[in-house]
Amino acid sequence: MQKAVSSVAVAVAAVRRPTRRCHLPALPGDEVLVKVNELMSIEIQITYSYYSLPFCRPDNLTESAPTLWQLLHGDRQQRSPYQFEMRVPKKCQIVCRVLVGEKEAKELMEKMEDEYRVNMALDNLPLSIPIRRIDKDDFFYQHGYHIGEEHKRYFIHNHLSFLVRYKRDIDTSASTIVAYEVKPFSVKHQYEAQWNGANSRLSTCDANANRFILSSDSPPEIEVGEEIIFTYDVNFEESDIKWASRWDAYLSMTDDQARWFSIVNSPVTLIGLSVAMAMTMLRSLHRDIFRYSKLETQNEAQVETGWKLVHGDVFRPPSNPVLLCAYAGSGVQLFGLRNVVLLTWVLMGMLAGYTSSRLYKMFKSGSEWKHITMATAIQFPGFTFVIFAILNTLLQDENSSATVPPTTMCALVLLWSGIAPPLVFLGGYLGYKRPAIEPPVEINKTPRKIPKQAWYISPVFSILIGSIFPFTIVFIELFFGLIFIWYHQFYRGFGFLLITLVLLLVACAEISVAFCYYQLRSGNYKWWWRSFLTPGCSAVYLFLYATFFFFAKLSIVKPVSVMFYFGYMLVVSYAFFLLTGTIGFFSCFFFTRFIYSQRAFG
């Protein structure tokens, strides 16, 4: 894809110390490895390899061994043609000269129109451009630099001015890198006499003459047959930033004030909900249990109304118990997983199988526990894999670097089929061998007729209203999460994420229990599915907000990118549905067992 007339490595010292590949302190003159990463765009959301464009290549092009997350994320780090030596400044270093053909010019212009940016890393620190805020006296950092500029004409950024900030140890003179910045330029370089590779003398940028002149009067417009000379310079600047704090500047871009407002507002909402429950539901519940326990005969008990009369039907198995058990098991697996690695998801399969089989045995719907464990093992991973496989095929057609190689895809399938289902089946077997969970009251042989329900107790209305509360808890954090993912920004505040998770758990439990109680008071004992759907359908609001975010905040127009966005957001929404629904289901489960296990129902 690239036709280079000459690719010349920058000369380094004859006696070279070992390359520093991590955050080990480096002595003056030590080589520090610069890596290039994927090309990304917030308008297209499809990543490409750095060397898919006609950029300079190093003599020994190597790729770091990617982790599983990097393979799935399309993060491919490769050696760059830029060579740095710690605390050794360089001026106007020539990398190579490239002749732009018709194919190369078309690819570059397309990437510029789509506003693609180049990502690099130095000592695992991402390359960034500091941009001063208009309303504040500080900077925010743009991840990477744009390939070029497009203003009716196309100009490529062929000169990079790097700034590396370092923290020096006074005792050893060793240094650690604490900041990695760049300023890109478009320069139409001119060389004197003949082209002589790295030894060529540039009239626009001459390091040999100890002068550095950049002129943007005639930047290198991309035209077929034109040559582009890539150059760079490196400056080192000592800093007071400690190595442990070097990420603080990158992570200060988010609006913590809005996040704190959300965190403070959510407990206020929950406190109001808790007070309302304490004033109405709990008070009424305590009074009903006390009065019912004073009744001396069953005939007297029959005079009572509300949730007490449905005690013989409240634990009647729900319709389609297999799917409900599978959902509950998958939700338990997700709740145990949270934000941990993929391998933990596989290992949590035993808990999912155990939960679903124990619930299924309690319903006494049959003895085929293998069916329920199979449904638990495949329903969420199968859905996710189908979406992932479709998107991966589309990315492969686009030659994206985010494409998962066939070998990795096979490894994922083997990891799932060889480990996950056996663990789910093992958990299901252990759960089914345990004694069945017996209801605290005897179930009537004949189902009681459900009285006509008020409109505000109807399933559709209660689910739509109840599911709003969990969504309001995660609304602000969801916004920052979408910014982090689709704007390729830096994410900070995992403490916010933990607090939001705790608040979400409380909100799902309270709203599900409250609606369950009022449903039982109306004489409707079919609470199983509604307890799951009331908080679980907050995933619908999540997906609707993701749709709003797509049209309001993003400028994606390419069909493949649109499918990529909505495909992944559909998986996220489905996982949120399982997680919140499971929390609500088990909250109602323990609540109903508690109220019906009182002495009057013994």
UniProtKB/TrEMBL annotation:
How this chain sits in the membrane, per its record, is: Multi-pass membrane protein
Asked if the Swiss-Prot or TrEMBL record annotates the protein with the keyword Membrane, the reply is yes
Task: Output the Gene Ontology cellular-component terms.
Answer: endosome membrane; Golgi membrane
Major subcellular site: membrane
Q: Which domain of life is it from?
A: Eukaryota
Compartments reported by the entry:
Endosome membrane; Golgi apparatus membrane
Which InterPro entries is this protein grouped with? EMP70
| Bilayer-crossing regions | 260-282, 340-360, 372-391, 411-432, 454-487, 493-520, 532-552, 564-591
Q: Which residues form a coiled coil?
A: none
One Pfam family recorded for the sequence: EMP70
Record keywords: Cell membrane included? no
| Gene Ontology process terms (BP) | protein localization to membrane
List UniProt keywords, sorted A-Z: Endosome, Membrane, Signal, Transmembrane, Transmembrane helix
Per the record, the similarity remark reads:
Belongs to the nonaspanin (TM9SF) (TC 9.A.2) family.
Q: This chain belongs to which protein, by name? A: Transmembrane 9 superfamily member
> Which organism encodes this protein?
Oryza barthii
Which taxonomic lineage is given here?
A: Eukaryota, Viridiplantae, Streptophyta, Embryophyta, Tracheophyta
